[in-house]
């Protein structure tokens, strides 16, 4: 493992914010930390960064890099009146990085920022600011990247662009990446492993797709003539537009799809509707 936290606990004013939390992430792996606002996600990340000292527990980072961990907590801190290139140059100088022009251009290209943008960062979209923040976090060639709620405030295009960047960094740069969110859809699309944090405790963890499958009780099945299906009468179902929300076990989905096909129902999509209540209440550890 590149980074791991063991039995991490932290209290503020006799209120336990983290309670014996265990988390780890390996090279090339994307790990998601799912939790409601106030669950303790940011506190955990500050402990991983060394910004906050836990009351108990340890953090171990195994990496032969100049700076083993980089990332963004809450939102990127940028010089809003400077352009992206000059922001990188200043942060690189502060961190003692060789900030020659070719290196800075390479870092901007890595995160997909346009090289011809000379205007101040204050004119950037939230998605572009996030990508610039990631470029700054990568300046010291870290082995692990930690991103606190990176999709907050982004439009759908910004979310898609950032997702692709995160996947590319894990695959091509071989980074261990930990990111947090309070929205399951933001994590399920790209994460290998999920950790579910509730009131300071990890209540569920495992491979992301398995956790989703195990905690799915409803599927959204869409087809132009879905409401005319006779097969669906055997299930608890509700209709909205051209979609049916069907209560069916994961094991029976394939059989239901087969029945609909035999009826002549041309399915355009079938996706699980995750039960967050089950995910947060079904403790596996």
TrEMBL record:
UniProt cross-references to Pfam families, sorted A to Z: ABC_tran
| Recorded GO MF terms | ATP binding; ATP hydrolysis activity
Keyword Nucleotide-binding annotated: yes
Its family remark reads: Belongs to the ABC transporter superfamily.
**Name of this chain's protein:** ABC-type multidrug transport system, ATPase component
InterPro entries assigned: AAA+_ATPase, ABC_transporter-like_ATP-bd, P-loop_NTPase
**Record key words, sorted:** ATP-binding, Nucleotide-binding, Transport
The ABC transporter domain extends over 3-224
């Amino acid at each position: 493992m590149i980074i791991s936290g063991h039995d991490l606990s932290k209290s503020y004013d006799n209120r336990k914010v983290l309670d014996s939390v265990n988390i780890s992430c390996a090279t090339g792996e994307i790990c998601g930390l799912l939790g409601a606002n106030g669950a303790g996600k940011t506190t955990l990340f500050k402990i991983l960064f060394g910004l906050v000292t836990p009351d108990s527990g340890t953090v171990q980072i195994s990496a032969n890099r100049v700076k083993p961990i980089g990332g963004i907590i809450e939102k990127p801190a940028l010089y809003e009146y400077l352009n992206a290139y000059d922001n990188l140059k200043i942060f690189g100088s502060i961190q003692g990085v060789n900030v020659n022009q070719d290196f800075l251009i390479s870092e901007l290209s890595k995160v997909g920022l346009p090289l011809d943008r000379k205007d101040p960062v204050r004119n950037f979209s939230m998605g572009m600011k996030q990508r610039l923040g990631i470029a700054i976090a990568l300046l010291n060639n870290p082995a692990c990247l930690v991103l606190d709620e990176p999709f907050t405030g982004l439009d759908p295009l910004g979310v898609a662009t950032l997702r692709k960047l995160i996947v590319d960094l894990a695959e091509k740069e071989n980074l261990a990446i930990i990111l947090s969110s309070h929205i399951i859809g933001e994590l399920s699309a790209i994460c290998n492993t999920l950790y579910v944090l509730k009131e300071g405790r990890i209540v569920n963890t495992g491979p992301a797709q398995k956790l989703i499958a195990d905690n799915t009780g409803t599927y959204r099945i869409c087809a132009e003539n879905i409401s005319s299906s006779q097969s669906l009468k055997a299930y608890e179902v509700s209709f909205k537009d051209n979609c049916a929300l069907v209560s069916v076990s994961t094991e029976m989905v394939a059989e239901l799809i087969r029945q609909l096909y035999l009826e002549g129902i041309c399915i355009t999509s079938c996706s699980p509707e995750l039960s967050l209540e089950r995910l947060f209440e079904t403790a596996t550890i």
